[in-house]
């Protein structure tokens, strides 16, 4: 059969045409003695070409023929088309089953005849197929023989995905029964002492098993009449253990599959076998939400079936009450997130089961809806995913179109999973990377034109459908419940809609439904877009601590902007805008309050021309505010414009902070908490400085025209000077002036005082914009001293009267507005005071420590928990800042890096100079950042400033979400804060108090 040099044989060409990838090897196999007489048979070549992998099928056929004693098999292959298709189909799809046939050459007879009962065998038929297996090795051989027939029906299309999965579950049931029979035969005395029921869980219990999967079980044991319960349970445990070994252990014939009993109460730490009463007691008292979710698929399959039914009947009422548990949906979603987070990064894009848009997304969604609505509707109580999805659609709990798309996607993904596992009979959920494996997989699913390209396209398409729908599945029917549906369409009842909203975390479902009706009912274009947006938005709201507030504010924003052409288009078309809005509206009160005062600021949340959420910077802000003041008619109008810019920019800053803290579907949360703190501190401080500059310009312009009779500067103090302002911070300042040449000091002083008075008044006039409070209490002589001093007066006071606390306060002094030259000279004046050349004497150090101790005892609010007070409590802001400031005053004259108004920068400089260890630096920095984040969170959540954690549970949970803690973990947050503060206090005791 050798072709002339340079020319390919006609057989070679035909083999290529029939799908062989290695025609040369195929030619050699066709030339083998086993295929003599049929090597050119077009029927054989056509049948091989119809398989998933013709090369693999031909190799398997030759190996099987080599093991035959005669020609019976070959003659049957050529003569009987149904048998030929079944055998070659299996050989082309499964190297493992081809290996089995080569080892057991007589097992091909299992594929020859198909009686009607063979088309859809059940447990009884499989039990007959395993009946003669009395030891583990024989059981494996018989199991594979039965598996041959299931695989043949599958690859030939005789059974669909659901029927194949059900047959695999039935075969598993028969196998568990056979394994238990072997265990009982080996220990008849144990079998006589106990009743043992095997409850299938997971996919086996759901009648939807894979080719290779752990078979999840739970064991229930009882003593027979008259037997001691302890002895009976020990006997039952031996039987159960033996059953697991029969199925799981590797023999010369391999293993069947692992039997996994870890879904039992207490998991692997709990007893393998419990009595029914013990099971019931556990689930009534200790079980977690996921354990009830797992029980959806519980099904007695082996052993004492009567006991198994009693188990299911006893636990079923508890299963259908699971949705009433606190944090029910959050628990389910948290478990789903944990599954995804544990996938190795390298596998994430190849995961069929656990990755985004994978099988688990469909299964979780269906099970969640079953638990919510199955309490009232018994038709939903199926353990089989596709049956349950169909029932949910039939009852109006899921949109019919959504259910149909999910059904189609689930079947495709499960079929991929089946064919991947069938090849080697190995447990895997990863899509292969090898081109030949992908080609075989694609062809096995009927994709013959371009198998690899078509497979990847279809896989991504179906995964995309699942990703898009699995969240919307919960929310779209809620919109149908308040919309006008066409004739014959089934809607979610009002009661079921309220039930679902409660389960999803909405505290006031009646109000939520009213909001949905107001937003989405009607036939307008606006309502149509809302019906598209709301299923996704409702899901994002539900992930927050206060979904009701998010939905209510969304309705208010939509009412205010609904008639503007760009609003809904922004949310629909710009990917980030809708999710950013949902996060911002449901994170607390501050950002929504700022937005509602000027809803058009929602444009900042988009990707386009709104400027996004990046901070503007002081120069840009000051330029905009000064320009607005220049256009205004009078100081009131000018300061109103400045305050309007401030409100918008506060919203931008808060929104960016929330989005960065929560993360989005495309952008994970910012891992560097310090970066978030510095971003907020810098943005709010720059904004405050720009607002003061604009207000100063407006006041001077109205009262004196272009030039004030005295040079005037505003010095930022405290957090303002340190670029560390929070959302609720006052602006701590000093005011300094210097009469211009030829102006009397009295006239200059009157002008300066009038400027200060007018600035304070205008920035606090009640309006839609938040006030900016100016606090000048850090001035010389405090509240008793003049609001404004000349530079000469400051110099005289500091030379004669300055106290150590005033020098300490000046560590944060920095010019922020007004005359730059005057501000620079003020800094030159105070530098020797705050960074004394000789450092601090012992008396000064003692005075600072005394003041700190006095402040801790006198200023702590009555009733507050000191350990949770972020400002004055041990390890709080005051502790860290005073420790750093003591180092600055002691060593700032000699170490330039310490001459900064910023706490974190000074801390790093102290470390670099060797005054504090790297470990202690990290401890103090973490405590300072955390305390600052808590204060920011409290303001964002409550809309008013606070130095301690909220006491209202929902507000506390919202602070937790902002700080990265999931639902139900507020206690962990408080404990983490205490631990962080406690460690910081230990460093403070050493560095500040010298302990």
Proportion of β residues?
5-15%
Main beta sheet: 5 strands, mixed
Report the mean per-residue pLDDT as an integer. Answer: 92
The chain-level structural class is mainly alpha
> How helix-rich are the residues, as a percent range?
55-70%
Rg, nearest Å: 38 Å
**Low-confidence parts, pLDDT < 50 over ≥5 residues?**
1-7
Cα end-to-end separation: 96 Å
Quaternary structure annotation: single chain
Q: What's the tally of helices?
A: 44
Based on Cα principal axes, name the global outline.
Answer: elongated
How many beta-strand elements? Answer: 10
Structure notes:
The protein has 995 residues and is mainly alpha-helical. It is 60% helix and 5% strand. It is built from 44 helices and ten strands. The strands form two sheets. Strands 1, 2, 3, 4 and 5 form a five-stranded mixed beta sheet that branches. Strands 6, 7, 8, 9 and 10 form a five-stranded mixed beta sheet that branches. Helix 14 (229-248) links the parallel strand 2 and strand 3. Helix 11 crosses helix 14, helix 26 (525-542) runs antiparallel to helix 27 and helix 30 (590-596) crosses helix 32. Mean pLDDT is 92; it is low at 1-7.
